Amino acid sequence: MSTLEVKNLHVSIEGKAILKGLDLKMQTGEIHAIMGPNGTGKSTLSEAIMGNPAYTITEGEILLDGENILDWAVDERARAGLFLAMQYPAEIPGVTNAEFIRSAINARLPKDEPISIRKYLKDLEETMAFLDMPFSMAERYLNEGFSGGEKKRNEILQLMMIKPKFAILDEIDSGLDIDALKVVSKGVNEMRSPDFGSLIITHYQRLLNYIVPDVVHVMMDGRIVTTGGPDLAKRLEAEGYAGLRDELGLDIKLAEDKA
């Protein structure tokens, strides 16, 4: 069992404080969801965990199995088992899907024990079929010319092939129609195991109807302000964030407040 822990994390962008003392702890075998209003720092948390240098960590720790990884480069974090499915996946002309995924898998294996071509192609074909993706997409350049739904399926394909310890899914449901949402959810649910954990960042309950989380966290103003079970997400969908903020006695301005 592996553990990912964020302790008293403070993060700023261009001098503006975004995260203001965030605490979070999760283990493999668990699915956690983070919900919150726009601008509260959800995507900042995902980028900070993965080590995006545009985000300045001014205080706190990020621990993977008890080891502080703040000084680790992005590729070191990925090799150690962290994975980020981004809200807006990048296009990389000249690098095919198949090449990218195989390189990512081999980066986590001993240098003298790369995955065999035969096994890799077999696993890739089976996984793409599971996600209702034509195998021809394997030879297309990474995300180039892909629709929004194709990009999100491709992120889940990478997730299932690479098999990280922890996957951070940043608004993986953004812009998906119901069919694509079901396929993406099927892939994440297939990954559920004692060796895998996921942190799902979303605005909407609809994704959590398909990927039922063990724990739901609510973020406001750069912190996690409350934690509960799946019913908490349903309540937020029905009532919004203002009622919860007022119940908790928080002096926070929300975008949904009337001017």
Written description of the protein model:
- Pfam families: ABC_tran (PF00005).
- Keywords: ATP-binding, Nucleotide-binding.
- This is Fe-S cluster assembly ATPase SufC.
- Belongs to the ABC transporter superfamily. Ycf16 family.
- It comes from Ligilactobacillus murinus.
- With 259 residues, this protein is of the alpha/beta class.
- The protein has a domain of 175 residues: Rossmann fold.
- Helix content is 36%, strand content 28%.
- It is built from 9 helices and 12 strands.
- The strands form 3 sheets. Strands 6-9-10-3-11-12 form a 6-stranded mixed sheet, with helices on both faces.
- β1 and β2 form a beta hairpin.
- α3 runs parallel beside α5 and α5 packs parallel to α6.
- The longest helix is centred in the middle third of the chain and has 15 residues.
- It is globular, with a radius of gyration of 18 Å.
- The mean pLDDT is 92.
